[in-house]
UniProtKB/TrEMBL annotation:
Gene responsible for this protein: Nop2_0
Main subcellular location: nucleus
GO biological process: maturation of LSU-rRNA; rRNA base methylation
Protein name stated in the entry: NOP2 methyltransferase
Bias (Basic residues): 10-22, 651-666
Provenance organism: Promerops cafer (Cape sugarbird)
Gene Ontology molecular function: any one: rRNA (cytosine-C5-)-methyltransferase activity
Positions of S-adenosyl-L-methionine binding: 404-410, 428, 455, 472
Segments of skewed composition (Acidic residues): 115-139, 169-184
Domain SAM-dependent MTase RsmB/NOP-type: 312-599
Swiss-Prot/TrEMBL keywords: Methyltransferase, Nucleus, Ribosome biogenesis, RNA-binding, S-adenosyl-L-methionine, Transferase
Highest taxon listed in the record's lineage: Eukaryota
Residue stretches of biased makeup (Basic and acidic residues): 51-76, 157-168, 185-196, 635-645
Location of the active site: 529 (nucleophile)
């Protein structure tokens, strides 16, 4: 074709530009050819069908096929000019005229024809320097080429997508650069605004750090919002609901600010404000934010320091991890863990303190319906429920009483520690709950248990002489709020005192049911799922005064010590050996555990009788001391003389009457 430009080294400037230049060269060639050679013996579409093949052949055989390629291009150009003059409109024929191509040819670049009609080697680089008008002409003219006609529709679409992905036009790149510059300018302006607003924002932070108590009007307004927003549909009150509910985010920030002030009250407090005002506001805000009753929050504030109280309240909003206990009567923990892992369960050992516990993080199968569960290889049980049995430490061939056994988790744990030896009496006052106990004992393979339905307070009369007793007493449930959120609002002082009274009766019955002369036992473990002092330390201190027992170590290496003093009360110093467990420190349900050792079967009720008798004379002082001894002797002498004069029947009757009157005088 006489072209010396290497297309592989040519710099790409846009999609399809190479094809447009080649089509423009055909128009330029038609200007130099004689008019006789421009005629076509066949239709105009025929040369265009042969054009791609001619290009491929000419690139391979440049020397031998130059003449044939030139003739085909001449015929194609002549056909295009003829079609432009005849078939198109007048406006199109004007811009299709070959005369306008002279303006695009730069000086010094020309095409010469040899005597044989071949194209001399000239400079074809002129086509790359054409202005925009000629490019548009060539592009519009060559829009439908023979290559595109030969391609299928799906191939045309693929080529179009490829051209869109590979190259962008200069206009598009310029627009993108302009957009990037605008985005950078906008970001700089924003940064400048932030820098300008920096001092003001810092001032606002400084102001917020200085916590101030809200006024009484603001508190009343928030109380109205809170009360009206919590109204039910069927309430008889005629208060309309507010347009906006109370803002919990504002309340949470106020709780944090109030805590900071209370931790350094002497420096950060507001002048003229007492500590009680800050505490009252904190209790009110926590009741609104965490949905607790005022009574329960008051009790919790007495038990925990303020920072620890917030951690406790936050921990109650999160459920405790799911834990299971391996039943060593049927399998080992390693085998059970491998079987559950194969079923898609993600688990880990519970801790160093437990040899049978496993904690479940997530599972693709329901934990309570696996074949291993149905076969009795494990029991769904909370981590805190394992601790009382570990403190009880049952031995083989012992007689053990589980006074409040439902639903049977602790009973089955005792049986597996005893290796199904000895005897376990599983008692519960609820017949309905005993059904779950019987089902779990059968599923887990426990064979040394006897189930009874009796009142625990009457149990020493039913059966006694046990080596060990486990008492998981019914309580208010303040340690398992994450499981039962209703405890936040449905407990009051009456419920706490009622539970404490029942627990005192049960613990005395449990102590009386133990045989102090047991060779291996004589132990009682008392536990509750409550954190109230009235249900724990008070009950234990009461048992120490009423029975011949003493507190011993529980054998648990972790847990917080029990209280030896609470507000104005003072308990026995040995209460340090009891253990408390909290959800925010141990990641398990709130629990209290105490272990007693009984050293005498006698009931120390006679200790207070001498004190009462000794107090009786002092209650009526002067009955004997006020009467002088000589008068007593005279009276006695005169009475003796009269008694001698009286007959025998009358004397006996008089002495019997005196014997009846003497206790009244005393």
């Amino acid at each position: 074709m006489g072209r010396k430009l290497d297309p592989t080294k040519k710099e790409k400037r846009g999609p399809g530009r190479k094809a447009r230049k080649q089509r423009g060269a055909e128009v330029e060639l038609a200007r130099f050819l004689p008019p006789g050679k421009c005629g076509l013996d066949r239709p105009a579409a025929a040369p265009r069908r042969a054009r791609p093949s001619d290009r491929r052949v000419s690139s391979r055989r440049a020397g031998d096929r130059q003449e044939e390629a030139l003739q085909s291009r001449q015929k194609e150009a002549a056909g295009q000019t003829a079609r432009g003059r005849s078939g198109f409109s007048d406006g199109n024929s004007k811009w299709l005229a070959p005369a306008k191509a002279k303006k695009t040819q730069p000086k010094g670049n020309h095409v010469e024809l040899s005597s044989d009609g071949e194209v001399e080697e000239g400079s074809w680089e002129m086509e790359e320097e054409e202005d925009g008008s000629s490019e548009e002409m060539v592009d519009d003219y060559g829009a439908s080429s023979s290559e595109e006609e030969e391609l299928l529709p799906i191939e045309k679409a693929a080529l179009k997508q490829k051209s869109d992905r590979e190259g962008l036009s200069e206009d598009d790149s310029e627009e993108e650069e302009e957009e990037e510059e605008e985005a950078e300018e906008a970001s700089k302006q924003k940064m400048g605004q932030k820098e300008e607003e920096g001092p003001d924002l810092q001032l606002n932070l400084d102001i917020d750090e200085q916590f101030k108590l809200p006024t009484s009007e603001e508190i009343e307004k928030e109380d109205i919002l809170f009360i009206s927003s919590s109204l039910a549909v069927g309430d008889s009150l005629t208060v309309f609901p507010p347009a906006e509910p109370p803002d919990l985010h504002v309340i949470h920030q106020r709780i944090q600010g109030n805590l900071e002030v209370l931790q350094d009250f002497g420096v950060k407090r507001e002048e003229g404000r007492s500590r009680q005002e800050y505490l009252a506001l904190l209790r009110r805000d926590m009741a609104a934010y965490y949905s607790y009753s005022d009574f329960l929050l008051t009790k919790l504030m007495d038990i925990f320091p303020l920072p620890e109280l917030i951690s406790f309240l936050e921990a109650n909003e999160v459920p405790r991890p799911v834990t299971i206990r391996t039943n060593t009567l049927k399998t080992r923990r390693r085998d059970l863990a491998q079987a559950l892992i194969n079923r898609g369960v993600n688990l880990d050992p519970l801790g160093k303190w437990s040899k049978t516990g496993l904690v479940i993080y997530d599972s693709t199968v329901p934990i309570g319906a696996t074949p291993e569960y149905l076969a009795g290889h494990y029991m769904l049980q909370g981590a805190s429920s394992l601790l009382p049995v570990m403190a009880l430490a049952p031995q083989e061939n012992e007689r053990i009483l589980d006074m409040c056994c439902a639903p049977g988790g602790k009973t089955s744990y005792i049986a597996q520690l005893m290796k199904n030896t000895g005897m376990i009496l599983a008692n519960d006052s609820s017949a309905e709950r005993l059904r779950s106990v019987v089902g779990n004992l059968h599923r887990l393979g426990v064979t040394n248990a006897v189930v009874s339905n009796c009142d625990g307070r009457q149990f020493p009369k039913v059966l006694g002489g046990f080596d060990r007793v486990l008492l998981d007493a019914p309580c208010s449930g303040t340690g398992v709020i994450s499981k039962d959120p209703a405890v936040k609002t449905n407990k009051d002082e009456t419920d706490i005192l009622r539970c404490a009274h029942l627990q005192k009766e049960l613990i005395l019955s449990a102590i009386d049911s133990v045989n102090a002369a047991s060779e291996t036992g004589g132990y009682i473990v008392y536990c509750t799922c409550s954190i109230m002092v009235e249900e724990n330390e008070w009950v234990v201190d009461y048992a120490l005064k009423k029975r011949n027992v003493r507190l011993v170590a529980t054998g648990l290496d972790f847990g917080k010590e029990g209280f030896t003093r609470f507000k104005d009360r003072r308990f026995h110093p040995s209460l340090k050996s009891t253990r408390r467990f909290y959800p925010h420190t141990h990641n398990m349900d709130g629990f209290f555990i105490a272990k007693f050792k009984k050293f005498s079967n006698a009931i120390p009720q006679a200790r207070k009788e001498p004190a009462v008798e000794a107090a009786a004379p002092s209650a009526v002082p002067g009955t004997i001391i006020t009467e002088p001894p000589p008068k007593k002797k005279k009276l006695e002498g005169s009475k003796a003389d009269k008694e001698q004069k009286l007959p025998q029947p009358a004397l006996k009757k008089k002495r019997s009457l005196q014997a009846q009157r003497r206790p009244l005088k005393a």
